[in-house]
Amino acid sequence: MHTIDRRAFIDNSVLDIEFDRVFHPSWQFLGFAGEVREPGDYVVRMLGRDEVVVIRGEDGEVRALHNSCTHRGTRLCRASLGNTAHLRCSYHGWTFANDGRLVGVPALRSGYPPDFDHAGHGLSAARVTSRRGFLFATWDPHAPDLEEYLGEIAWYLDALLDCGGGEWEACGPPQRVRAQGNWKIPTDNFAGDGYHMRTTHQIALDQGIYGDTLANGTRGRAGTDLTAVNIATPAGHSVRAGYVIDSGSSLEDRDPAAPQFPGYPPERWAELAAAQTPEQVRFTSHCEVAHGVVFPNTVFLSVAHDRAVGEESDPLTRYLVVRSHVPVSARETECLYWTLVPTAMDPQWRRRSYRFQARTQSAGGILFEMDDFENFARIDDALARSAPGRGGPVDLTLGAGLGTPARDFPGPAQAEVATLSEHNQRAFYRRWAALVGELP
Ligand code: FES
Ligand SMILES: [Fe+2]
After folding, report:
1. What separation in angstroms does the CA of 100 have from each of 19, 68, 93?
2. Eight-class DSSP state of 84
3. In degrees rounded to 5, what are phi and psi of residue 31?
4. Whole-prediction pTM value?
5. For the Rieske domain, which residue ranges apply (predicted)?
6. What is the mean pLDDT of residues 335-349?
7. Please, are residues 336 and 187 in contact by the beta-carbon 8 Å criterion?
8. How far does residue 381's CA lie from ligand 1's centre (Å)?
9. Checking phi first, is residue 321 left (phi over 0); if not, alpha (psi -120 to 50) or beta?
């Protein structure tokens, strides 16, 4: 899979197919359990084509209820978050409990036959599973359970979370921004695009955001190189992990007795290592950046940034952001951003982590987001403007056949060492193409 038809990025009939064949059978990330902590707490999110109210019932269970009245179909909940015992329709007043049951029908006795079926008029509910506080949902009753769906990628997600001490919480509700361009464009960028750093983000590198590693900066980590490992699974999930190691050495040269977790306080490295398995430490030690995709449209980035984005006295600090790329149309995507902080870190460190994320990779980030969104919009402009068939398909050849298998790499799934490669993007689109089939 080295090319993709350009129509995949601009054609709404392709998006219709994607909703049915890619999104419907998949587990999609909706948010964090902590966003709906108390009974009645809700947030409104998209699940494929449909809007859902993600709401904790009085029984403590989190559900994803279709946000559409079962009488005429009116949109029930118009706020994006809140707390309520009931959802009451604005048209004729049908009322649903926060577990989705229809519990109130005006003029029930005088207006409806005695055998009116309340139970048959409850709100449709998607399957919801909470994993380490991450809420995933699917409409597909036949989808495998979440653990099987995630497969090998779960090991890598767990390692990144365990490296921060295990427990994480979201810094408030997600930021949301609409971006021009198809949902797959930012998603394949997160799957493994190290290639754009030196052009798109040259200004960030020039400011020394990664120390000396990627730029000719002055931040005091001279003599190191970045080596990336790409991990992609047959299900289309992926991680690209970048390691900062001494120039001329290899990943295998890292000292297992002296793990380093860039961006976390060095005085806590031993404690953080103890919270992980030895195999996890071999994945997380010296890892400066890890990003990837939970197929189809959830992405994550864990990265240690330098004080170029903070105050001069700020130490190298790590943040973790989880994002959802929700299709609005074939050519527009709503991006939701959740910043996560480990509860094991002190409040000052957590504030700094959030600040670094907000200043770089957020909707208003000064360094990365503006650069990336500009390119995504330019892709969309040019693809949409072109005559059918003009320009050839989108190319994914970078690094094909050139990566070397990662020796002695601890996690499951095939890992290959290749700092510049579209290995992960190829896996993403291979899975996508297998589900979508021939384009119309
Ligand atoms: S449409 Fe909701 S009560 Fe009639
Ligand atoms: Fe970027």
Report:
1. 24, 11, 15
2. -
3. 150, -165
4. 0.95
5. 27-137
6. 96
7. no
8. 41
9. beta
Which of 354, 272, 278 shows the shortest CA–CA distance to 317?
A: 354
Q: Which of 47, 292, 42, 320 is CA-nearest to residue 170?
A: 320
Q: C-alpha dihedral over 430, 139, 58, 148, to 10 degrees?
A: -40
Instruction: Describe the chain by its helix, strand, coil percentages, rounded to 5.
Output: 30, 30, 40
Q: How far is the CA of 110 from the centre of ligand 1 (A)?
A: 17
> Counting ligands in written order, which one lies closest to the CA of residue 188?
2
Q: Which atom of ligand 1 lies closest to the CA of 106?
A: 3
Measured from the Cβ of residue 210, the count of other Cβ atoms closer than 10 Å reads 28
CA-proximal residue: ligand 1, atom 1 (nearest): 72
DSSP assignment of 226-264, as one string?
EEEEEEE-TTS-EEEEEEEEETT--GGGS-TTS---TTS
Give the number of whichever ligand sits closest to the CA of residue 90: 1
Quick one: how many helices (H) and strands (E) in the chain?
12, 22
pLDDT at 76 over 90: yes
Tokens of 159: 């390692």
What are the E-state strand segments in 120-161? Answer: 125-131, 134-138
The alpha carbon of 195 and the centre of ligand 2 are apart by a number of angstroms equal to 9
Q: Which residue's CA is minimally distant from atom 3 of ligand 1?
A: 92
Ligand whose nearest atom lies closest to the CA of 197: 2
> How confident is the model over 242-282, as pLDDT tens digits?
998 888 888 889 998 999 999 999 999 999 999 999 999 99
The single-letter code of the amino acid at 373 is: F
Return d(Cα 408, Cα 200) in angstroms, integer: 33
Instruction: List the one residue out of 126, 129, 125 whose CA is nearest residue 97.
Output: 125
Query: Which ligand 1 atom minimizes the distance to the CA of 93?
Result: 3
